[in-house]
Amino acid sequence: MAACGFLVTVLAACSGQRTEVHHGDVPRPGGPSGTARPNPSAAPARVPGVGERLWKKVPAGTRQVVTVYGDGKDSPDSTLVLYEKHGSTWRLTDSWPAHNGKRGWSADHQEGDERSPVGVFTLSDAGGLLDDPGALLPYTQDEDAFASPYYWDEAHWHDFDYVIAIDYNRLRGTRPDDPTRPMGQEKGGGIWLHLDHGDGTLGCVSVPGSAMEYLLRTLDPKKKPVVLMGDKAALLA
Questions:
Q1: Distances in Å between the alpha carbon of 93 and those of 160, 166, 197?
Q2: 169-225 pLDDT, tens digit each
Q3: Are 74 and 103 in contact (CB under 8 A)?
Q4: What are phi and psi of 232, to 5 degrees?
Q5: Alpha carbon distance 235, 47 (integer Å)
Q6: How many CA atoms does the CB half-sphere of 5 hold within 13 Å?
Q7: By C-alpha distance, which of 180, 173, 177 is closest to 160?
Q8: What is the spatial distance between Cα 203 and Cα 197, in angstroms, rounded to a whole number?
C-alpha cells in the first residue's frame, strides 16, 4: 500500500497526540533571524536555502512555492513555508511547524521506507473528508474514501479532513486517492499534505489544520504551485 494515499497504511505508521510545536528556523536572506514569521523586507531573487540543482527543476511560470525544510536527513520534524513571487522576487507569506516521514528523507523513495521523497513536485489536486473550504485546486469531498477506520487511534481521526496531493508518482488531474503509480508500485505514492497528528508519517507532510485551510484557499492553479521538499542539507546540495 502507498505511503499516505491508502488510509490503512498511513495511519498505522502515524502516532502521538495532536500538537503544534515549533521546529528549527528556516534559512533566510542574511542568515538566521530567530523566527520563521514573515519579514516584508526579505525579498530574495529565489527561495532561500535551496541550491541551484533543485531550483532549476521549478517549472517556468511558477509563482507559489511551498518549501518544506526538514530538520535533518533522519528527522521527522520540519517547517513548511509558503513563498509567493512578486515581480522578480520571492517573499515569505507564512510558515508552520510540520512533520515528514518518521524516518526522515530519501532522494530515492521506496514504498515502505517511511521516508519522504526529496524533490520538486507540482500541486494539482485536493480533497478530504470535510466539505470544500473554498479551495482553488480541484477538490474531491468523500466521507468514505477519507474517513479513518473506527479502530484507529483518536489522534488520527482528523488526518484526512483536508489533503493536497503531492504529485510524486501519481497522475495529475485525478483525485488524491487515485492508486495509479506511473513509476511502479515499488516507488511508493500517495504522498500528501494533510493535517498533523503530532508525529512523523509514512512519507506525507503534515501541518496544523489552520495551515491546511489556508493553503487550500491560497494555492492557485493559475500560479502553478509546487512543493519543494527535503532536509536542509539536501535542499542546498
A1: 24, 20, 24
A2: 999 999 999 999 999 999 999 999 999 999 999 999 999 999 999 999 999 999 999
A3: yes
A4: -60, -40
A5: 11
A6: 26
A7: 177
A8: 14
Distance CA 166, CA 182 (A): 14
Angle at 147 between CA 141 and CA 148, to 5 degrees: 155
Pick from 45, 42, 46: nearest CA to 29 = 42
Distance CA 146, CA 41 (A): 41
Q: Give the helix/strand (H/E) hosting 13.
A: helix 7-13
Residues 6+ apart with CB under 8 A from 206: 14, 98, 99, 159, 193, 194, 195, 196, 197
User: Under a CB-based contact definition with an 8 Å cutoff, are residues 202 and 3 in contact?
Assistant: yes
Residue 36 to residue 232: CA distance in whole angstroms: 14
Give the DSSP letter of residue 156.
Answer: G
For residue 92, the cross-strand partners are 83
Q: pLDDT-derived band of residue 25, with 50, 70 and 90 as boundaries?
A: low
